[in-house]
Amino acid sequence: MKRKYEENEDKFHEKKKRMVEIELGELVDFALDIVNKLNSTNEGHLSQIVRLAVDEDKVFLKIWKSLATRKDENERIQKFISLMNVLFDMNLKTKSETI
User: Which residues have C-beta within 8 Å of that of residue 68, sequence separation ≥ 6?
Assistant: First the structure.
C-alpha cells in the first residue's frame, strides 16, 4: 500500500513525462514545418535541423523556446535562419529568397 505522498509523487512524474512528450512533439512539428519553408545549398543541413529536434539538442531547444513567443511567422522564420546560420554554420534561406 502506497502512502499519500508516494501516490502524489507518482502522479507528478507521470504528468511531467506527458508534458515532455507533448513538448517534444511540438518541437519536431516546428522543425518539420520550418524545413518545408527553407532551402539550403547543403541538403544535409535540412535533415540536421530535424535531427537536432528529435535529439532535443540544448541549443536548438533554446532557439525554439525563444521563437515560440513570436506571433509573426515571417519574423520567426527569419530569426531562426539567422540563428542557425551563425550557430550551426549553415547557409539557410527561405524558399522565396532563392527564386
Answer: 30
Per the DSSP assignment, residues forming a β-bridge with 11 are none
pLDDT of residue 5: 62
**Residues 6+ away with beta carbon under 8 Å from 65:** none
DSSP 68-99: HT---HHHHHHHHHHHHHHHS---EEETTTT-
| Tens-place pLDDT, residues 39-94 | 988 989 999 999 999 998 999 999 999 998 888 999 999 999 999 999 999 999 99
Closest CA to 88 of 6, 51, 98: 51
